């Protein structure tokens, strides 16, 4: 094999070497990542269209699901960069490398922040049901979701400022995409983007599921003496508890997929983070799973998808369709 064919930039002495893979393995990687990227974008677009189009879905909880779907959809596009990196070469230049990492970090942080908001939402709905409708409104939820996104972008732009000011400063050869985070910045990122939020999520959901279990037992013990009015309240409580369980599954899957990601990005050797890490792919795949979880547990999502795919949403008044 010609030595030049092993280099990302054959005519540069400082060029990185390509990752040489058997043709079958390389093709499998291309097909798999392309499929994950496509499904991630399509599935999350269905969630975005559903929540935005149908007015009955404009609840605080679904607004947070919309925020999560937006970040997941963006992840689907980020996977395209991973497809390019299968051979271990970055051809888009150092500036795009820095922007890619800022986008990746910001989207990741916004996802974690949205998970915290989802946990707070379920905590309020289950533990304080009487004050929940007045305290957790759609407008307030939108405001907190926007604050989460804006703060994520600003924080990680500041965290990676040196990489934006001098792109490629941490690359060891041409064709590499690596960024660096200083020790203090890495500690702050670890605390604000992972340890702190995960701690809050775990504490809130331990409390939520404790209340869910106790309420489920109480409902079972009084099922024979429930009046018609109490039956309606019980149905509402069951709906809230089901939402807590479903979103609990989303949170658990999220934590399983993001723990390796943060272990790699925040504990990388020499403070350098490579864009070709397998931990990134595990985090990305989580974005494909979330809409599938909704499809399994939420009948309204299955109904909305059917209306979208059959173009029924183009009919006048379709936004007022009752999906419940």
Notes on the protein architecture:
There is one protein chain. The protein has one domain: Rhodopsin 7-helix transmembrane proteins (Rhopdopsin 7-helix transmembrane proteins, Up-down Bundle). Helix content is 71%, strand content 2%. The protein contains 10 helices and 2 strands. α2 (60-84) runs antiparallel to α9 (278-297), α3 runs antiparallel to α5 (138-159) and α8 runs antiparallel to α9 (278-297). Residues 224-229 and 269-273 have low confidence and may be disordered.
Task: Detail the topology: elements first, then pairings.
Layout: H1 23-53, H2 60-84, H3 93-127, H4 132-135, H5 138-159, H6 161-165, E1 178-180, H7 183-221, H8 228-266, E2 272-274, H9 278-297, H10 299-309
Antiparallel strand pairs: 1-2
